[in-house]
Prior knowledge:
By secondary structure, this protein is mostly beta strands. It has one domain (36-397): Neuraminidase. It has helices at 3-25, 29-35, 88-93, 217-225, 325-330, and strands at 60-63, 71-75, 80-85, 112-117, 123-129, 139-146, 153-161, 166-174, 179-186, 194-201, 204-209, 233-239, 245-249, 257-263, 266-271, 276-282, 290-297, 301-307, 314-319, 343-349, 355-362, 370-376, 381-386, 393-397. A hairpin with a 4-residue loop joins strand 7 and strand 8. Residues 1-22 have low confidence and may be disordered. Residues 1-25 form the signal peptide. InterPro entries: 6-blade_b-propeller_TolB-like, Arylesterase, Serum_paraoxonase/arylesterase.
Amino acid sequence: MAPNIGRVSILVALAAVSIVHLINSGSLNGLIEATTGHVVIDESRLANWANLPDVANGQCTVDFVANACEDVNVHAASSTAFLTCGDPAGRVQWFPSSGYQPTTNRARFEEQYFKVNLKTGKRTELMLKGLPEGHDIVTHGLDIFPVEGDDSKILVFAVNHARERDSIFIFEHTLGTNVLNLAKSVEHPAIKCANSVAAVGPRSFYITNDHYYPRGILRQLEDKFGPWSWATSVQHCAVDEQDKVTCKEVTHTMPCANGLAVAGDRVFVGDSKNGSVSVYEMINKQPNDLRRIADIDVGAIADNIKILAGTQDPLVTVFPDGEELPLFLKDVSALGKTVFAPTAVLRLRADKNYTPELILRDDGKHLTDMTAADIDPKTRTLVGASFLKYGGFAVCKLPSSVNLS
């Protein structure tokens, strides 16, 4: 080794050690935050629904047929709830949205999809067909889209976090069966930290990326020094007839894009760090051309968004007392037993300028750390899902006092 090269290598190593020491000691925190677009959130804005009594949760039952159900979507025509579920212990090892985690030695992750018939109460695990053998299945957001001209079938769009890369699965499902047939696995560099998905066509959809860096040292820095104003947004992706995938950023950037839903030509995007929901309108009904028309402060950390069937109103699942994710990850088996996280569901009424209205609140005994909720108006049933909990979802019969029209 040449002497100069040796000296340079030593200096680089010493500089790296020094920087790591300064970061860990906090000496560089202020400078880094000031120069990276760090967003300071006013925590008092996120407590509008804190310390309130329970509302409409008197007929809630926790279901243990599935665990760690991050998202739920109700197919209103058949009164069927579809859920993406998983393994709480596995999610501590690998679940990108909850913090960077190094690749584990686990051979494969095999999470599940379930459906619940809300008329009969029947629970069914859905079998996956058409996936490559040995492929990681780590579930997250999902959405449902109709099959034109065939009311017996639907398309299920689902985020998947394989360790190699994120993708969006598009499944075909025949109602009444227990099979999801993979029609397309969509991959693109813009699908990198996917959280929610919302379909706008049979091969066209939006996603939120909830972080800028999917993994590695840069992701660790993002987790430590974020949230950043420029880090997350919504992508519109489409697959053409030659299977070419194109994606385009279609919203403003925000600290933590999370929940996502579409109603007609309106697109609703939740920012879980900022406690807000932005409302966009498709210009000339083009999904890749959006105009922001409103920002709604929901007064709490906001997670998934659904559309109340029969209306154009978003349902937003929120954490009214905050979410202590490091505590939950430390011992997922304690959730709902000794550790409780209150939850609430808000309806943003379109006829009242999207003013938030409390639909349900639970102290965490039934719906601890609930990340998503959807409602079937026909059976007056709310299904709530919790992405880390054993006993992964709850079914609640809503009282007549809750207005669903």
